[in-house]
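> @MW can you paste both from yesterday?
MW: sure, first one:
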Amino acid sequence: MEVYLIRHTSPLVEKGICYGQSDLALAETFQDELDFLKRNLPDPFDAVYTSPLKRCSILAEKLSTTNLFTDARLLELNFGEWEMRKWQEIDQIRLNEWMADFVSCKIPGGESFLDLSYRADQFIVELLQTPFENVAVVAHGGIIRYIVTKILEVPLKNAFKIPIDYSSITRVHFNKDSSYNSLKELNKNYCGRKN
């Protein structure tokens, strides 16, 4: 199964704001980013899966009108009490504790990266049981980074060393029996104008 992991287009949010599951509007560059993606993605897909947040679902609807599935397991990391706060205004002691061990440290009222990994794993297991061969997954940076770490067998603590830009395409191959999975392309992105 070929899976195209597509990070949503640029959100309309002030720099320095912590957000994960907040439902943000799209930046004015949406059409340009969509055009880039359409030029660099196969058409049609057998199925398109999307996070329910509009920064993903609006893009997914532009990529497919048939076999479009919304799945809450594709949501970004839940930043709980920190959502939509400036990073510098978050309790720095708690923030530093989380940054030192974001894999297992839960954000107050939110998740750890391990929590995100559990739901992403459930999604992948179910996806591999479908008859589809060519799939798009429109999701968030955290989810895509996790899937890449899984395929490359990279420790979760290194997930954020993997570049996943807005409007980027990461292509992976999953064998249905999970005997051999591979990374085919990483972070082909709008910012770099790679065609």
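MW: second:
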Amino acid sequence: MSQIPEPGVRVRGLRKGFGERPVLEPLDLDLEAGSIVSVIGPSGCGKTTLLRMLAGLESPDTGTVYLGGSTPDEARRAKKVAVVPQQPGLLPWRTVEANARLLLDVGRSASPSGSTSPAD
């Protein structure tokens, strides 16, 4: 008997609204690990909201999200998921070099050991 492999992404009954405006209606989704997927739709249809929920940056009103068997928060803490913003931006108070190092600095401070040494 063959077992169905755990998908890379499993979404069940996902709903999200802002005030009286529903953004995502019940959504069920299974994506196989390593697959390449495009989310296409008109402005305001919930594409960014869905991606923010997959990354754990936005909480669903109802439903569950699992990334390789982990919740989005667990996957983010384990550095198994990341987000690239739609609009790139620099922090004006940082130098060019400091802006370029930002992800390394954030990665060090988010490490499970809490160490900030360059060897991490």
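> thanks! The radius of gyration is 17 Å.
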